[in-house]
Amino acid sequence: MEGKTIDVSDLLFILRKWFWLILILGLIGAIGGFVIAKQFIVPTYESQSQLVIKQGTKDETTTSTSDTQSNIQLVNTYKIIIVSPTVLEKVVDNLKLNITSRKLAKQILIENSKDSQVLTVNVLNQNPKIAKQINQQLITAAIKEAKKIMSANNIRVLTDPTYNDIPVKPNKVLLTGIGLLAGFLVAITIIVIRETMRQSVRDEKELSHIIKATHLGNVNQF
């Protein structure tokens, strides 16, 4: 059986006719996305701190351009030191965490902007208090380990670890929007399939729209 095609001029008419289905499925999708974010995804909290990496000098009150370039070259080295197994194991032991250093490393993200001496340490955890404690212990252990390895005091704390009781994951607004969009897409898919496969006309209004004519009246069958 040859299906019916839908041109652009008929699309708005069809969407208006099926508006109730689009609305219902959109609401169901949005509610579903919100419920998943609220009930089925464990919230994750973030603690953030900032460190400055600098070359140790006799006079720390002055810094030349060459010193700054040398400091930038140290950044990648210190990024590795901060998340090294030695440092992470000390954090696990000090806080008596019930995880391995390898799993702890997955909760830590260290970022730095290009040509910057500042490292941003982000710690993610399902408990905001523990996230802050991990961040603090991480800084303390990293500074001690860096002194032993580099034989210099190169790390300065720019910003202390933050405490944030607002979860960074899941993003409820984003998941709700995705659910809403998914509901719309499902509704439109159903509508397109039904309209292209249907071979009959439901009422006078639809017939008038299809043939572009005015409905004058009905002829009763005797």
Uncertain regions spanning at least 5 consecutive residues:
none
- Helical content class: 55-70%
Oligomeric description of these chains: single chain
N- to C-terminal separation?
Answer: 33 Å
Structural class by secondary-structure content: alpha+beta
Element string (H = helix, E = strand): HHEHHHEEHEHH
The pLDDT mean sits at 82
In terms of DSSP E residues, the strand content is 5-15%
**Spatial order of the strands in the main sheet?**
2-3-1-4
Outline of this structure?
By secondary structure, this protein is an alpha+beta fold. It is built from eight helices and four strands.
Report on the structure:
With 222 residues, the chain is an alpha+beta fold. 55% of the residues lie in helices and 12% in strands. The protein contains eight helices and four strands. It has helices at residues 8-17, 19-40, 65-82, 85-95, 101-105, 128-150, 172-197, 204-211, and strands spanning 45-53, 108-111, 118-125, 155-159. It has a four-stranded antiparallel sheet with strand order 2-3-1-4. A hairpin with a 6-residue loop joins strand 2 and strand 3 (118-125). The protein is elongated, with a radius of gyration of 31 Å. The mean pLDDT is 82.
